TrEMBL record, chain A:
Transmembrane segments: 12-37, 77-97, 109-131, 178-196, 276-296
Domain ABC transmembrane type-1: 72-297
Native source organism of the sequence: Paucibacter sediminis
Protein name in the entry: Sugar ABC transporter permease
PANTHER family xref list: ABC TRANSPORTER PERMEASE PROTEIN, INNER MEMBRANE ABC TRANSPORTER PERMEASE PROTEIN YCJO
From TrEMBL, chain B:
Protein name (database record): Carbohydrate ABC transporter permease
Homology family: Belongs to the binding-protein-dependent transport system permease family.
Species this protein is from: Paucibacter sediminis
GO aspect biological process, one term: transmembrane transport
Gene3D superfamilies in the cross-refs: MetI-like (1.10.3720.10)
Domain ABC transmembrane type-1: 72-262
Transmembrane segments: 12-35, 74-100, 107-131, 143-162, 183-208, 241-261
Topology class, membrane: Multi-pass membrane protein
Keyword Transmembrane listed: yes
Principal place of residence: membrane
Keywords: Cell membrane, Membrane, Transmembrane, Transmembrane helix, Transport
Length: 306, 276
Protein backbone atom coordinates (compact mmCIF):
# COMPACT_ATOMS: atom_id res chain seq x y z
CA UNK A 1 0.00 0.00 0.00
CA UNK A 2 2.82 2.36 0.84
CA UNK A 3 3.75 3.15 -2.76
CA UNK A 4 0.18 4.30 -3.40
CA UNK A 5 0.52 7.13 -0.90
CA UNK A 6 -0.21 10.56 -2.26
CA UNK A 7 2.18 13.36 -1.44
CA UNK A 8 0.56 16.61 -0.28
CA UNK A 9 1.82 18.08 -3.54
CA UNK A 10 -0.31 15.82 -5.69
CA UNK A 11 -3.19 15.32 -3.33
CA UNK A 12 -5.26 18.32 -4.49
CA UNK A 13 -5.07 17.17 -8.09
CA UNK A 14 -6.13 13.67 -7.17
CA UNK A 15 -8.98 15.00 -5.02
CA UNK A 16 -10.21 17.31 -7.76
CA UNK A 17 -9.74 14.89 -10.65
CA UNK A 18 -13.17 13.18 -10.63
CA UNK A 19 -15.04 16.44 -10.33
CA UNK A 20 -12.98 18.21 -12.97
CA UNK A 21 -13.25 15.35 -15.41
CA UNK A 22 -17.05 15.40 -15.20
CA UNK A 23 -17.07 19.18 -15.28
CA UNK A 24 -15.05 19.22 -18.48
CA UNK A 25 -17.09 16.55 -20.23
CA UNK A 26 -20.59 17.56 -19.08
CA UNK A 27 -20.14 21.22 -18.17
CA UNK A 28 -17.63 22.99 -20.40
CA UNK A 29 -17.57 20.84 -23.50
CA UNK A 30 -21.33 21.10 -24.09
CA UNK A 31 -21.11 24.88 -23.96
CA UNK A 32 -18.34 24.99 -26.53
CA UNK A 33 -20.19 22.46 -28.60
CA UNK A 34 -23.41 24.44 -28.53
CA UNK A 35 -21.53 27.51 -29.75
CA UNK A 36 -20.03 25.43 -32.58
CA UNK A 37 -23.44 24.03 -33.41
CA UNK A 38 -24.97 27.47 -33.70
CA UNK A 39 -22.85 28.07 -36.81
CA UNK A 40 -23.80 24.77 -38.41
CA UNK A 41 -26.75 23.58 -40.38
CA UNK A 42 -27.69 20.13 -39.18
CA UNK A 43 -30.51 17.72 -38.67
CA UNK A 44 -29.66 15.07 -36.10
CA UNK A 45 -31.35 12.33 -38.12
CA UNK A 46 -28.86 12.68 -40.98
CA UNK A 47 -25.74 11.86 -38.93
CA UNK A 48 -22.78 13.96 -37.85
CA UNK A 49 -21.25 14.02 -41.32
CA UNK A 50 -24.17 16.02 -42.70
CA UNK A 51 -23.21 19.03 -40.60
CA UNK A 52 -22.03 22.04 -42.55
CA UNK A 53 -20.88 25.52 -41.69
CA UNK A 54 -23.41 28.24 -42.47
CA UNK A 55 -21.88 31.26 -40.75
CA UNK A 56 -24.41 33.49 -39.08
CA UNK A 57 -27.41 32.03 -40.92
CA UNK A 58 -28.93 30.48 -37.81
CA UNK A 59 -28.74 33.77 -35.94
CA UNK A 60 -30.21 35.63 -38.90
CA UNK A 61 -32.98 33.05 -39.09
CA UNK A 62 -33.76 33.39 -35.39
CA UNK A 63 -33.78 37.18 -35.53
CA UNK A 64 -36.15 37.17 -38.50
CA UNK A 65 -38.36 34.49 -36.97
CA UNK A 66 -41.68 35.94 -35.85
CA UNK A 67 -42.26 33.12 -33.38
CA UNK A 68 -38.89 33.63 -31.73
CA UNK A 69 -39.77 37.26 -31.04
CA UNK A 70 -43.19 36.23 -29.83
CA UNK A 71 -41.63 33.68 -27.48
CA UNK A 72 -39.25 36.35 -26.17
CA UNK A 73 -42.14 38.74 -25.59
CA UNK A 74 -44.09 35.99 -23.81
CA UNK A 75 -41.07 35.21 -21.64
CA UNK A 76 -40.65 38.85 -20.72
CA UNK A 77 -44.34 39.21 -19.90
CA UNK A 78 -44.33 36.08 -17.74
CA UNK A 79 -41.07 36.94 -15.99
CA UNK A 80 -42.40 40.36 -15.06
CA UNK A 81 -45.91 39.27 -14.10
CA UNK A 82 -44.69 36.42 -11.93
CA UNK A 83 -41.45 37.98 -10.69
CA UNK A 84 -42.48 41.45 -9.58
CA UNK A 85 -45.40 40.38 -7.33
CA UNK A 86 -43.12 37.83 -5.66
CA UNK A 87 -41.01 40.63 -4.24
CA UNK A 88 -43.87 43.03 -3.61
CA UNK A 89 -45.47 40.37 -1.42
CA UNK A 90 -42.35 38.78 0.04
CA UNK A 91 -40.76 41.97 1.40
CA UNK A 92 -43.69 43.20 3.53
CA UNK A 93 -44.54 39.63 4.51
CA UNK A 94 -40.99 38.92 5.65
CA UNK A 95 -40.76 42.15 7.63
CA UNK A 96 -44.08 41.44 9.29
CA UNK A 97 -42.97 37.90 10.16
CA UNK A 98 -39.72 39.33 11.44
CA UNK A 99 -41.38 41.82 13.80
CA UNK A 100 -44.38 39.85 15.02
CA UNK A 101 -45.33 36.21 14.73
CA UNK A 102 -42.67 34.81 17.05
CA UNK A 103 -44.41 31.57 17.82
CA UNK A 104 -45.77 30.46 14.49
CA UNK A 105 -43.05 31.96 12.35
CA UNK A 106 -41.32 28.73 11.35
CA UNK A 107 -44.57 26.98 10.51
CA UNK A 108 -45.72 29.91 8.38
CA UNK A 109 -42.37 30.18 6.62
CA UNK A 110 -42.47 26.44 6.02
CA UNK A 111 -45.93 26.65 4.44
CA UNK A 112 -44.80 29.40 2.08
CA UNK A 113 -41.57 27.61 1.26
CA UNK A 114 -43.02 24.15 0.59
CA UNK A 115 -44.07 24.79 -3.04
CA UNK A 116 -40.47 25.71 -3.85
CA UNK A 117 -39.18 22.20 -3.22
CA UNK A 118 -42.08 20.34 -4.85
CA UNK A 119 -41.88 18.88 -8.34
CA UNK A 120 -42.86 21.49 -10.89
CA UNK A 121 -44.42 18.77 -13.03
CA UNK A 122 -46.69 17.53 -10.23
CA UNK A 123 -47.63 21.14 -9.52
CA UNK A 124 -48.34 21.98 -13.14
CA UNK A 125 -50.49 18.86 -13.46
CA UNK A 126 -52.37 19.71 -10.29
CA UNK A 127 -52.97 23.27 -11.40
CA UNK A 128 -54.18 22.22 -14.82
CA UNK A 129 -57.08 20.57 -13.01
CA UNK A 130 -57.59 23.52 -10.66
CA UNK A 131 -57.69 25.84 -13.67
CA UNK A 132 -60.28 23.76 -15.52
CA UNK A 133 -63.05 25.94 -16.97
CA UNK A 134 -66.29 24.39 -15.79
CA UNK A 135 -65.32 22.38 -12.74
CA UNK A 136 -62.02 23.91 -11.65
CA UNK A 137 -61.71 25.16 -8.09
CA UNK A 138 -60.26 28.46 -9.18
CA UNK A 139 -63.27 29.40 -11.28
CA UNK A 140 -65.50 28.15 -8.48
CA UNK A 141 -63.72 30.43 -6.03
CA UNK A 142 -64.07 33.33 -8.46
CA UNK A 143 -67.80 32.64 -8.73
CA UNK A 144 -68.11 32.79 -4.94
CA UNK A 145 -66.12 36.02 -4.75
CA UNK A 146 -68.26 37.54 -7.48
CA UNK A 147 -71.13 37.56 -4.99
CA UNK A 148 -69.15 39.88 -2.75
CA UNK A 149 -70.23 43.49 -3.40
CA UNK A 150 -67.56 45.86 -4.82
CA UNK A 151 -64.99 43.07 -5.18
CA UNK A 152 -67.32 41.24 -7.55
CA UNK A 153 -67.31 44.13 -10.00
CA UNK A 154 -63.55 43.74 -10.45
CA UNK A 155 -63.72 40.06 -11.32
CA UNK A 156 -64.45 38.56 -14.75
CA UNK A 157 -68.20 38.11 -15.28
CA UNK A 158 -67.98 34.51 -16.53
CA UNK A 159 -65.95 31.41 -15.89
CA UNK A 160 -62.50 31.93 -17.39
CA UNK A 161 -61.14 29.41 -19.87
CA UNK A 162 -57.69 29.63 -18.25
CA UNK A 163 -55.85 27.09 -20.35
CA UNK A 164 -57.38 27.70 -23.78
CA UNK A 165 -57.98 31.42 -23.90
CA UNK A 166 -54.70 33.02 -25.02
CA UNK A 167 -55.37 36.05 -22.82
CA UNK A 168 -55.94 33.95 -19.70
CA UNK A 169 -53.11 31.44 -20.16
CA UNK A 170 -50.32 33.85 -19.26
CA UNK A 171 -51.97 35.03 -16.01
CA UNK A 172 -52.59 31.37 -15.11
CA UNK A 173 -48.91 30.49 -15.62
CA UNK A 174 -47.82 33.59 -13.69
CA UNK A 175 -50.01 32.63 -10.75
CA UNK A 176 -48.42 29.20 -10.54
CA UNK A 177 -44.90 30.60 -10.77
CA UNK A 178 -45.72 33.23 -8.16
CA UNK A 179 -47.15 30.57 -5.85
CA UNK A 180 -44.06 28.44 -6.30
CA UNK A 181 -41.36 31.03 -5.65
CA UNK A 182 -42.82 33.60 -3.27
CA UNK A 183 -41.78 31.56 -0.22
CA UNK A 184 -38.19 31.30 -1.38
CA UNK A 185 -38.04 35.09 -1.49
CA UNK A 186 -39.61 35.33 1.98
CA UNK A 187 -36.79 33.14 3.29
CA UNK A 188 -34.17 35.31 1.59
CA UNK A 189 -35.62 38.51 3.04
CA UNK A 190 -36.02 37.02 6.50
CA UNK A 191 -32.33 36.12 6.44
CA UNK A 192 -31.48 39.69 5.46
CA UNK A 193 -33.76 41.21 8.10
CA UNK A 194 -32.06 39.23 10.84
CA UNK A 195 -28.83 41.08 10.15
CA UNK A 196 -30.32 44.51 10.93
CA UNK A 197 -29.33 45.63 14.45
CA UNK A 198 -32.48 46.12 16.61
CA UNK A 199 -30.98 49.31 18.10
CA UNK A 200 -31.68 51.03 14.80
CA UNK A 201 -35.39 50.52 15.26
CA UNK A 202 -35.23 51.47 18.95
CA UNK A 203 -33.47 54.71 18.10
CA UNK A 204 -36.01 55.42 15.38
CA UNK A 205 -38.90 54.80 17.77
CA UNK A 206 -37.33 57.20 20.29
CA UNK A 207 -37.14 59.81 17.57
CA UNK A 208 -40.85 59.30 16.94
CA UNK A 209 -40.69 57.43 13.63
CA UNK A 210 -43.79 55.33 12.90
CA UNK A 211 -43.82 51.76 11.63
CA UNK A 212 -44.15 52.83 8.01
CA UNK A 213 -41.37 55.38 8.27
CA UNK A 214 -39.14 52.74 9.83
CA UNK A 215 -39.98 50.36 7.00
CA UNK A 216 -39.04 52.88 4.32
CA UNK A 217 -36.02 54.42 6.03
CA UNK A 218 -34.45 51.48 7.85
CA UNK A 219 -35.76 48.17 6.56
CA UNK A 220 -35.73 48.78 2.83
CA UNK A 221 -32.28 50.38 2.63
CA UNK A 222 -30.79 47.65 4.84
CA UNK A 223 -32.07 44.79 2.73
CA UNK A 224 -31.24 46.46 -0.57
CA UNK A 225 -28.38 44.03 -1.34
CA UNK A 226 -30.77 41.12 -0.77
CA UNK A 227 -33.38 42.73 -3.00
CA UNK A 228 -30.72 42.91 -5.66
CA UNK A 229 -29.85 39.26 -5.15
CA UNK A 230 -33.50 38.15 -5.14
CA UNK A 231 -34.45 40.20 -8.18
CA UNK A 232 -31.42 38.86 -10.07
CA UNK A 233 -32.48 35.29 -9.29
CA UNK A 234 -36.04 36.10 -10.42
CA UNK A 235 -34.78 37.59 -13.68
CA UNK A 236 -32.56 34.60 -14.43
CA UNK A 237 -35.22 32.10 -13.38
CA UNK A 238 -38.07 33.92 -15.13
CA UNK A 239 -36.25 34.03 -18.45
CA UNK A 240 -35.65 30.28 -18.25
CA UNK A 241 -39.27 29.43 -17.59
CA UNK A 242 -39.90 26.04 -19.14
CA UNK A 243 -41.64 23.36 -17.11
CA UNK A 244 -44.86 25.12 -16.12
CA UNK A 245 -45.76 26.40 -19.61
CA UNK A 246 -44.52 23.16 -21.17
CA UNK A 247 -46.83 20.98 -19.03
CA UNK A 248 -49.80 23.34 -19.08
CA UNK A 249 -49.77 23.60 -22.88
CA UNK A 250 -49.00 19.95 -23.55
CA UNK A 251 -45.53 20.91 -24.83
CA UNK A 252 -46.92 22.90 -27.76
CA UNK A 253 -47.09 26.47 -26.49
CA UNK A 254 -50.85 26.77 -26.13
CA UNK A 255 -53.44 28.40 -28.33
CA UNK A 256 -52.01 31.29 -30.30
CA UNK A 257 -48.62 30.32 -28.76
CA UNK A 258 -49.54 32.44 -25.77
CA UNK A 259 -47.64 30.13 -23.42
CA UNK A 260 -44.65 29.64 -25.70
CA UNK A 261 -41.66 30.82 -23.70
CA UNK A 262 -38.24 31.16 -25.31
CA UNK A 263 -37.03 27.98 -23.57
CA UNK A 264 -40.08 26.03 -24.79
CA UNK A 265 -39.60 27.34 -28.33
CA UNK A 266 -35.93 26.40 -28.20
CA UNK A 267 -36.86 22.88 -27.13
CA UNK A 268 -39.42 22.61 -29.92
CA UNK A 269 -36.94 23.80 -32.53
CA UNK A 270 -34.49 21.14 -31.46
CA UNK A 271 -36.67 18.16 -30.67
CA UNK A 272 -39.93 18.77 -32.58
CA UNK A 273 -38.57 20.50 -35.70
CA UNK A 274 -35.12 18.81 -35.62
CA UNK A 275 -33.28 22.07 -36.24
CA UNK A 276 -30.40 21.86 -33.78
CA UNK A 277 -28.45 24.69 -35.37
CA UNK A 278 -31.23 27.25 -35.06
CA UNK A 279 -32.06 26.06 -31.56
CA UNK A 280 -28.43 26.48 -30.47
CA UNK A 281 -28.31 29.96 -31.97
CA UNK A 282 -31.49 30.81 -30.07
CA UNK A 283 -30.03 29.54 -26.82
CA UNK A 284 -27.08 31.92 -27.23
CA UNK A 285 -29.37 34.82 -28.13
CA UNK A 286 -31.45 34.06 -25.08
CA UNK A 287 -28.29 33.93 -22.99
CA UNK A 288 -27.39 37.42 -24.26
CA UNK A 289 -30.80 38.66 -23.12
CA UNK A 290 -30.31 37.08 -19.68
CA UNK A 291 -26.83 38.59 -19.37
CA UNK A 292 -28.05 42.02 -20.48
CA UNK A 293 -30.95 42.04 -18.04
CA UNK A 294 -28.74 40.83 -15.18
CA UNK A 295 -26.36 43.66 -15.95
CA UNK A 296 -29.22 46.18 -16.00
CA UNK A 297 -30.51 44.88 -12.64
CA UNK A 298 -27.00 45.24 -11.29
CA UNK A 299 -26.88 48.85 -12.45
CA UNK A 300 -30.29 49.65 -11.03
CA UNK A 301 -29.29 48.45 -7.58
CA UNK A 302 -25.74 49.80 -7.50
CA UNK A 303 -25.30 51.99 -4.41
CA UNK A 304 -25.70 55.60 -5.48
CA UNK A 305 -22.78 57.91 -4.86
CA UNK A 306 -23.89 61.15 -3.31
CA UNK B 1 -59.31 57.01 15.87
CA UNK B 2 -55.66 56.88 15.05
CA UNK B 3 -54.91 54.66 18.01
CA UNK B 4 -57.69 52.33 16.98
CA UNK B 5 -56.25 52.08 13.49
CA UNK B 6 -52.89 51.11 14.91
CA UNK B 7 -54.52 48.36 16.93
CA UNK B 8 -56.41 47.13 13.92
CA UNK B 9 -53.42 46.99 11.63
CA UNK B 10 -51.66 43.98 13.19
CA UNK B 11 -54.89 42.00 13.26
CA UNK B 12 -55.54 42.67 9.62
CA UNK B 13 -51.98 41.63 8.89
CA UNK B 14 -52.31 38.43 10.91
CA UNK B 15 -55.46 37.56 9.01
CA UNK B 16 -53.79 38.25 5.66
CA UNK B 17 -50.79 36.10 6.54
CA UNK B 18 -53.09 33.34 7.74
CA UNK B 19 -55.14 33.50 4.56
CA UNK B 20 -51.92 33.42 2.56
CA UNK B 21 -50.78 30.33 4.44
CA UNK B 22 -54.03 28.61 3.55
CA UNK B 23 -53.63 29.57 -0.10
CA UNK B 24 -50.10 28.15 -0.11
CA UNK B 25 -51.21 24.85 1.42
CA UNK B 26 -54.60 24.39 -0.27
CA UNK B 27 -53.25 23.03 -3.59
CA UNK B 28 -51.39 20.29 -1.70
CA UNK B 29 -54.55 19.42 0.19
CA UNK B 30 -56.56 19.13 -3.00
CA UNK B 31 -53.81 17.08 -4.66
CA UNK B 32 -54.21 14.45 -1.94
CA UNK B 33 -58.01 14.70 -1.88
CA UNK B 34 -58.28 14.34 -5.66
CA UNK B 35 -55.94 11.35 -5.53
CA UNK B 36 -58.73 9.47 -3.75
CA UNK B 37 -61.50 10.31 -6.21
CA UNK B 38 -62.48 9.12 -9.65
CA UNK B 39 -62.24 11.36 -12.66
CA UNK B 40 -65.96 12.08 -12.77
CA UNK B 41 -66.02 13.00 -9.08
CA UNK B 42 -63.11 15.42 -9.47
CA UNK B 43 -64.97 17.16 -12.26
CA UNK B 44 -68.30 17.54 -10.57
CA UNK B 45 -69.88 20.55 -8.94
CA UNK B 46 -68.92 21.21 -6.25
CA UNK B 47 -65.58 19.35 -6.46
CA UNK B 48 -64.78 16.95 -3.61
CA UNK B 49 -63.53 18.65 -0.47
CA UNK B 50 -62.82 15.52 1.53
CA UNK B 51 -61.06 12.20 0.90
CA UNK B 52 -62.92 9.55 -1.09
CA UNK B 53 -62.32 5.85 -1.58
CA UNK B 54 -61.00 5.57 -5.13
CA UNK B 55 -57.29 5.56 -4.32
CA UNK B 56 -56.87 1.84 -5.06
CA UNK B 57 -58.74 2.23 -8.33
CA UNK B 58 -56.60 5.23 -9.32
CA UNK B 59 -53.45 3.28 -8.56
CA UNK B 60 -54.76 0.41 -10.67
CA UNK B 61 -55.26 2.77 -13.62
CA UNK B 62 -51.83 4.23 -13.02
CA UNK B 63 -50.10 0.85 -13.07
CA UNK B 64 -52.09 -0.27 -16.10
CA UNK B 65 -51.16 2.77 -18.18
CA UNK B 66 -47.57 3.08 -17.00
CA UNK B 67 -44.81 0.91 -15.59
CA UNK B 68 -45.42 3.12 -12.58
CA UNK B 69 -43.48 1.20 -9.91
CA UNK B 70 -40.54 0.89 -12.28
CA UNK B 71 -40.69 4.66 -12.87
CA UNK B 72 -40.77 5.22 -9.14
CA UNK B 73 -37.83 2.82 -8.78
CA UNK B 74 -35.78 4.71 -11.38
CA UNK B 75 -36.51 7.99 -9.62
CA UNK B 76 -35.23 6.52 -6.36
CA UNK B 77 -32.23 4.87 -8.01
CA UNK B 78 -31.17 7.99 -9.90
CA UNK B 79 -31.80 10.17 -6.83
CA UNK B 80 -29.66 7.99 -4.55
CA UNK B 81 -26.88 7.47 -7.10
CA UNK B 82 -26.62 11.15 -7.93
CA UNK B 83 -26.66 12.06 -4.24
CA UNK B 84 -23.84 9.65 -3.37
CA UNK B 85 -21.69 10.65 -6.35
CA UNK B 86 -22.24 14.35 -5.77
CA UNK B 87 -21.38 14.06 -2.09
CA UNK B 88 -18.20 12.12 -2.83
CA UNK B 89 -16.88 14.25 -5.69
CA UNK B 90 -17.92 17.60 -4.26
CA UNK B 91 -16.53 16.92 -0.79
CA UNK B 92 -13.21 15.84 -2.34
CA UNK B 93 -13.12 18.86 -4.62
CA UNK B 94 -14.33 21.31 -2.00
CA UNK B 95 -11.67 20.06 0.41
CA UNK B 96 -9.01 20.51 -2.26
CA UNK B 97 -10.16 24.05 -3.03
CA UNK B 98 -10.34 25.03 0.64
CA UNK B 99 -7.18 23.48 2.08
CA UNK B 100 -4.56 23.17 -0.63
CA UNK B 101 -2.56 25.60 -2.69
CA UNK B 102 -1.99 24.66 -6.32
CA UNK B 103 -1.52 26.31 -9.68
CA UNK B 104 -4.53 27.94 -11.33
CA UNK B 105 -6.61 27.32 -8.19
CA UNK B 106 -8.31 30.72 -8.27
CA UNK B 107 -8.93 30.66 -12.01
CA UNK B 108 -10.29 27.14 -11.88
CA UNK B 109 -12.65 27.95 -9.04
CA UNK B 110 -13.85 31.07 -10.83
CA UNK B 111 -14.48 29.03 -13.97
CA UNK B 112 -16.55 26.45 -12.08
CA UNK B 113 -18.54 29.18 -10.31
CA UNK B 114 -19.03 31.02 -13.59
CA UNK B 115 -20.96 28.10 -15.04
CA UNK B 116 -23.49 28.45 -12.22
CA UNK B 117 -24.56 31.70 -13.86
CA UNK B 118 -25.27 30.07 -17.19
CA UNK B 119 -28.90 29.15 -17.82
CA UNK B 120 -29.63 25.43 -17.82
CA UNK B 121 -31.37 25.47 -21.20
CA UNK B 122 -28.02 26.11 -22.89
CA UNK B 123 -27.00 22.56 -22.10
CA UNK B 124 -30.17 20.94 -23.35
CA UNK B 125 -29.11 20.27 -26.94
CA UNK B 126 -25.40 19.54 -26.52
CA UNK B 127 -26.05 17.23 -23.60
CA UNK B 128 -28.51 15.26 -25.70
CA UNK B 129 -25.84 14.94 -28.39
CA UNK B 130 -23.15 13.88 -25.94
CA UNK B 131 -25.44 11.25 -24.44
CA UNK B 132 -26.22 10.09 -27.96
CA UNK B 133 -22.52 9.85 -28.82
CA UNK B 134 -21.77 7.96 -25.61
CA UNK B 135 -24.70 5.62 -26.20
CA UNK B 136 -26.28 6.75 -22.93
CA UNK B 137 -29.74 7.50 -24.30
CA UNK B 138 -32.23 5.63 -22.10
CA UNK B 139 -29.52 4.95 -19.51
CA UNK B 140 -30.00 6.19 -15.93
CA UNK B 141 -26.29 7.05 -15.79
CA UNK B 142 -27.02 9.84 -18.27
CA UNK B 143 -28.90 11.46 -15.38
CA UNK B 144 -26.72 10.88 -12.34
CA UNK B 145 -23.17 11.11 -13.71
CA UNK B 146 -23.33 14.63 -15.26
CA UNK B 147 -25.19 15.90 -12.21
CA UNK B 148 -22.31 14.93 -9.95
CA UNK B 149 -20.24 17.82 -11.36
CA UNK B 150 -22.31 20.25 -9.32
CA UNK B 151 -20.79 23.71 -9.10
CA UNK B 152 -23.12 24.54 -6.24
CA UNK B 153 -21.91 21.43 -4.40
CA UNK B 154 -18.27 22.47 -4.74
CA UNK B 155 -19.13 25.95 -3.53
CA UNK B 156 -21.04 24.68 -0.50
CA UNK B 157 -18.31 22.20 0.44
CA UNK B 158 -15.51 24.72 0.07
CA UNK B 159 -17.36 27.19 2.29
CA UNK B 160 -17.97 24.55 4.90
CA UNK B 161 -14.45 23.07 4.93
CA UNK B 162 -13.08 26.59 5.33
CA UNK B 163 -15.23 27.30 8.36
CA UNK B 164 -15.48 23.88 10.05
CA UNK B 165 -12.09 22.25 9.66
CA UNK B 166 -9.06 23.79 11.34
CA UNK B 167 -5.92 23.75 9.22
CA UNK B 168 -3.89 22.65 12.26
CA UNK B 169 -5.90 19.45 12.54
CA UNK B 170 -4.98 18.44 9.01
CA UNK B 171 -1.32 19.43 9.59
CA UNK B 172 -1.18 17.41 12.79
CA UNK B 173 -2.60 14.32 11.13
CA UNK B 174 -0.07 14.69 8.34
CA UNK B 175 2.76 14.93 10.93
CA UNK B 176 1.48 11.80 12.59
CA UNK B 177 1.89 9.96 9.30
CA UNK B 178 -1.71 9.78 8.17
CA UNK B 179 -1.94 9.46 4.38
CA UNK B 180 -3.66 12.17 2.35
CA UNK B 181 -6.56 9.92 1.51
CA UNK B 182 -6.72 8.87 5.16
CA UNK B 183 -6.98 12.51 6.21
CA UNK B 184 -9.85 13.01 3.79
CA UNK B 185 -11.70 9.86 4.82
CA UNK B 186 -11.05 9.89 8.57
CA UNK B 187 -10.92 13.56 9.46
CA UNK B 188 -12.52 15.66 6.77
CA UNK B 189 -15.54 13.52 5.93
CA UNK B 190 -16.75 13.03 9.53
CA UNK B 191 -16.43 16.75 10.25
CA UNK B 192 -18.35 17.54 7.07
CA UNK B 193 -21.40 15.53 8.13
CA UNK B 194 -23.83 18.45 8.57
CA UNK B 195 -22.84 19.94 5.22
CA UNK B 196 -23.07 16.53 3.56
CA UNK B 197 -26.58 16.20 4.95
CA UNK B 198 -27.63 19.54 3.52
CA UNK B 199 -26.06 18.98 0.11
CA UNK B 200 -27.43 15.44 0.05
CA UNK B 201 -30.96 16.67 0.65
CA UNK B 202 -30.72 19.37 -1.99
CA UNK B 203 -29.20 16.98 -4.52
CA UNK B 204 -31.78 14.29 -3.94
CA UNK B 205 -34.69 16.72 -4.23
CA UNK B 206 -33.27 18.30 -7.39
CA UNK B 207 -32.78 14.87 -8.94
CA UNK B 208 -36.25 13.72 -7.88
CA UNK B 209 -37.83 16.80 -9.48
CA UNK B 210 -35.58 16.87 -12.55
CA UNK B 211 -37.73 17.10 -15.67
CA UNK B 212 -35.62 18.54 -18.49
CA UNK B 213 -32.82 15.99 -18.01
CA UNK B 214 -34.96 12.88 -18.49
CA UNK B 215 -37.13 14.66 -21.06
CA UNK B 216 -34.09 14.99 -23.27
CA UNK B 217 -32.38 11.62 -22.75
CA UNK B 218 -35.10 9.12 -21.82
CA UNK B 219 -36.94 7.73 -24.81
CA UNK B 220 -38.70 4.58 -23.63
CA UNK B 221 -41.50 4.74 -21.03
CA UNK B 222 -39.82 1.87 -19.20
CA UNK B 223 -36.93 4.18 -18.35
CA UNK B 224 -38.94 7.27 -17.42
CA UNK B 225 -38.52 8.82 -14.01
CA UNK B 226 -41.66 9.96 -12.20
CA UNK B 227 -42.07 13.52 -13.56
CA UNK B 228 -41.69 12.29 -17.12
CA UNK B 229 -44.00 9.34 -16.53
CA UNK B 230 -46.71 11.58 -15.08
CA UNK B 231 -46.40 13.99 -17.93
CA UNK B 232 -46.82 11.16 -20.45
CA UNK B 233 -50.25 10.37 -18.92
CA UNK B 234 -51.53 13.78 -19.92
CA UNK B 235 -53.40 13.52 -23.17
CA UNK B 236 -55.54 16.06 -24.97
CA UNK B 237 -58.40 13.55 -25.30
CA UNK B 238 -59.07 11.74 -22.04
CA UNK B 239 -56.76 12.44 -19.17
CA UNK B 240 -57.18 10.11 -16.20
CA UNK B 241 -57.21 12.89 -13.63
CA UNK B 242 -57.68 10.67 -10.60
CA UNK B 243 -54.73 8.49 -11.52
CA UNK B 244 -52.65 11.50 -12.43
CA UNK B 245 -53.37 13.07 -9.04
CA UNK B 246 -52.50 9.83 -7.25
CA UNK B 247 -49.20 9.72 -9.12
CA UNK B 248 -48.48 13.38 -8.38
CA UNK B 249 -49.29 12.81 -4.72
CA UNK B 250 -46.88 9.87 -4.59
CA UNK B 251 -44.22 12.01 -6.26
CA UNK B 252 -44.82 14.83 -3.78
CA UNK B 253 -45.23 12.95 -0.51
CA UNK B 254 -41.54 12.03 0.01
CA UNK B 255 -40.58 15.67 -0.50
CA UNK B 256 -43.11 16.85 2.08
CA UNK B 257 -41.82 14.28 4.58
CA UNK B 258 -38.20 15.28 3.93
CA UNK B 259 -39.15 18.91 4.29
CA UNK B 260 -41.01 18.45 7.56
CA UNK B 261 -38.08 16.48 8.99
CA UNK B 262 -35.25 18.72 7.81
CA UNK B 263 -36.70 22.09 6.85
CA UNK B 264 -34.06 24.08 8.77
CA UNK B 265 -31.14 22.31 7.15
CA UNK B 266 -32.76 22.59 3.73
CA UNK B 267 -33.62 26.26 3.94
CA UNK B 268 -30.21 27.23 5.24
CA UNK B 269 -28.53 25.21 2.50
CA UNK B 270 -30.64 26.60 -0.32
CA UNK B 271 -30.07 30.16 0.73
CA UNK B 272 -26.33 29.78 1.35
CA UNK B 273 -24.42 32.43 -0.47
CA UNK B 274 -27.39 34.73 -0.21
CA UNK B 275 -26.31 35.97 3.20
CA UNK B 276 -22.90 37.46 3.52
Amino acid sequence: MKHLRLSPRWAPYALLAPFLLLFLVFGLFPLAFSLYLSFQSWEPTSGLAAMHYVGLDNFAFALRDEWFWKSLANTGWLALASGLPQHLVAIPLASFLHLGFKRWRNAVVGAYFLPYITSSVAIAILFSSLFSTDYGLINLLLALLREVPLLGALLPAQAVDWLNDPDALKPAISMIVFWRYVGFNVVLYLAALQTIPPDLYEAATMDGAGRLQQFFHITLPSIRPMIFFGVTLSVIGGLQLFEEPFILTGGKGGSDQAGMTAAVYLYRNAFDFNDFGAASAMSWLLFLVVALLTWLTNRAFRPRTR
Amino acid sequence: MRRQAQHMAPWAAYCLVGLGTLIMLAPFYFMFVFATHSRSEIFSLPPPMWFGDDLANNLAILTKRLPFWRNLGWSLYVGIASTLLTLLFCSMGGYAFAMFEFRFKKALFALVMGTMLLPSFMNMIPSFMIMDLLGWIDQPRALYIPGAASAFGIFLMRQFVGSAIPRELVEAARMDGCSELGIYARIVLPLLKPALGTLGLITFIASWNNFIGPLVVMRSPDMYTLPLALRSLQSPVDTEWGALMAGSAIATLPLIVLFVLCSKQLISGLTVGAVK
